[in-house]
Design a protein that fits this description.
Strand order of the largest sheet of chain A: 3-2-1-30
Shape of chain A: globular
Mean pLDDT of chain B: 91
Distance between the termini of chain A: 5 Å
Strand order of the largest sheet of chain B: 2-1-5-3-4
Radius of gyration of chain A: 19 Å
Mean pLDDT of chain A: 97
Number of helices of chain B: 3
Low-confidence stretches of chain A: none
Number of strands of chain B: 5
Largest interface: A-B, 14 and 21 residues
Oligomer: heterodimer
Largest sheet of chain B: 5 strands, mixed
Order of helices and strands of chain B: EHEHEEHE
Structural class of chain A: mainly beta
Helix content of chain A: under 10%
Strand content of chain A: 35-45%
Helix content of chain B: 10-25%
């Protein structure tokens, strides 16, 4: 292991932070794509120097870039994202029909089996795939076709497909999550999909137990237990042990069960992390104290971790793709805030230090262990 | 070679002024020159620009429809051409390379 690389997407560019295994001294490189809103930067698990970045502005729309040298240089690749067929309408905020319209890519998920294949989660919500290293993109329309997309509606950030999980042992098994539509599962590599929201309850829906319309904020999975999923929903932290067929709430003693990201410890499948946020109307931490919540019991019992984090006057948010873990021992936990602070805990969350304190608002964080 | 005779005849060397983000993306300076055959229109100039710089495809106009992106405008010779047909002939000064076609970002952002 030669080091750690943290890939950070912000509202004004991408940053790449590197360290040795001690995770105490960091070098920050960037901004890459300065001034662009970088939704996500992610590396191939097969070829760690192959990176993907989704950048976007109102002016110029979507651009995707690929690096084959760990972010030292970048090449724009294809950015033609077209829905297959007529996508019809989804619901608007007021419940009226609204035409589907591509805006941007929220999440890029490199394939665990082919370095030239990468998946893209889009707004308006759809799943795209490139099998030619980003040159061209095709939509997999089964998700819209099979999962009652006419009933999907946008959350505050837009109607976005923001989470893509692939079972590394069985890449045909995939999960996606969409705000505000729900969680979805495919067992055939994304061709066909089923709604995976059994047991979820959302009070903002006319029928709180409806199968479609839940504002799922993020999903997490430990690769050793692909049938167990953890979810941070608009409200509620939930888990499923049957591949998303049924969910139970595990919010337990959290000070608030509203939040955005959720992550699983790299070596302990029942240790999970969330960042409690006061409410959906007040997107900042309870009491102005930034704390990460850790459960070592797969939910229900939580402890608040704040050593090294702001203890007062802190009113930042932590967005859904802005938390990640590394696979060192002890496991490192990373998250970025809308205030531009990037934090690391090299000891599973016990102690935190800032890698950077004055970046633009952080949209996404990914971590790579370099060979 | 640039022809200065009949509009629409020959090949014309046309200047295009790009906004900051597109200069960076294209690895260019503030202006690029493109060779346009035949009628010099917004459509023809952007076709030539995108052929020379494929990385700009989709960043000025929509891939499928060719429609100008909502947050961009086209200016030339002190006029806003954004709402004219992209098939309209551009001013003589643009055709002769004396003035650029300017792609301008709207005053937005934060």
């Amino acid at each position: 292991m030669s080091g750690i690389r943290v890939l950070v997407g912000t509202r004004k560019g991408a940053f790449i932070c590197t360290s040795d295994a001690g995770r105490g001294e960091w070098r920050i490189d960037g901004p890459h794509f300065g001034g662009w809103e970088v939704m996500h930067v992610h590396g191939s698990p097969l070829e760690p120097d192959r990176l993907w970045a989704s950048q976007w502005t109102d002016w110029h729309g979507q651009v995707v870039q690929r690096s084959d040298d760990g972010g030292r240089s970048w090449t724009p690749v294809g950015n033609d994202f077209r829905y297959r067929g007529d996508p019809g309408t989804h619901l608007w905020y007021d419940g009226t029909p609204h035409p589907w319209d591509f805006k941007r890519v929220w999440h890029l998920e490199p394939s665990p089996v082919d370095p030239d294949t990468v998946w893209a989660g889009a707004e308006d919500a759809a799943l795209f795939r490139s099998t030619d290293a980003g040159a061209t993109w095709e939509e997999l329309p089964g998700l819209r076709r099979d999962a009652r997309s006419g009933e999907w509606m946008p959350g505050a950030g837009g109607m976005c497909l923001h989470t893509i999980l692939i079972d590394p042992a069985n890449p045909a098994r995939m999960y996606t999550a969409i705000s505000a539509a729900g969680a979805f599962r495919s067992d055939d590599g994304g061709e066909s999909w089923r709604v995976a929201t059994g047991g979820l309850r959302s009070e903002f829906l006319p029928d709180p137990e409806a199968s479609v319309g839940h504002c799922v904020h993020n999903l997490a999975m430990h690769p050793s237990r692909p049938d167990t999923l953890f979810m941070q929903k608009h409200w509620d932290v939930c888990r499923s042990d049957d591949g998303g067929e049924s969910w139970v709430e595990v919010s337990g003693n959290l000070p608030s069960d509203f939040g955005f990201p959720i992550a699983v410890h790299a070596h302990e499948p029942e240790t999970i992390y969330v960042v409690p946020i006061l409410s959906d109307a007040e997107h900042y931490p309870p009491e102005g104290r930034l704390r990460v919540a850790r459960s070592r019991t797969g939910g229900h019992q939580w402890e608040l971790l704040g050593s090294g984090l702001p203890e007062r006057d802190c009113y930042v948010n932590v967005l859904r793709d802005a938390m990640a873990v590394d696979a060192l021992d002890p496991c490192g936990i990373y998250f970025g805030t809308t205030g531009g602070q990037l934090y690391v805990s090299p000891d599973e969350g016990d102690e935190w230090t800032a890698i950077a304190e004055h970046l633009p608002p952080i949209l996404s964080v990914e971590v790579q262990l370099l060979p | 070679m640039s022809l200065r005779g009949t509009p629409g005849a020959g090949v014309h060397t046309v200047r295009v002024a790009l906004p900051h983000h597109l200069r960076v993306l294209a690895g260019s300076g503030p202006e690029v020159t493109v060779q346009v055959s035949g009628e010099v229109t917004v459509h023809a100039v952007l076709d030539a620009l995108e052929a020379a710089h494929p990385e700009l495809r989709g960043t000025i106009r929509d891939h499928g429809t060719g429609a100008r992106r909502a947050y961009l405008r086209y200016f030339a010779c002190g006029e806003d051409l954004s709402h004219r047909s992209a098939a309209d002939r551009l001013p003589e000064e643009v055709r002769r390379g004396e003035e650029p076609l300017t792609v301008l970002g709207a005053i937005s952002g934060g």
